[in-house]
Amino acid sequence: MALARAVYQNYDIYLLDDPLSAVDSHVGKWIFDRVIGSSGILRNKTRIVVTHSVGIFLQCADQVILMEGY
Questions:
Q1: Phi-psi region of 40 (alpha: psi -120 to 50; beta: other; left: phi over 0)
Q2: 58 or 42: whose pLDDT is higher?
Q3: Which string of b and e fits 8-18 if b means at least 16 CB within 10 Å?
Q4: Contact yes or no for 53/21 (Cβ under 8 A)
């Protein structure tokens, strides 16, 4: 719900803190493809995504920053 509200605001930059953590992998991929990913609603926006599940995001990222030991 929070992701839907953020998208509705039509901002230029989106900071997303693990937006798919509450859904299973199939639903997460569906949301990612249609909202966050390169063909999604936010495709022309700057998206900074913080997540523990990198599998979906790595292939679509322009830049990846890995933090260890925190």
A1: beta
A2: 42
A3: eeeeeebebee
A4: yes
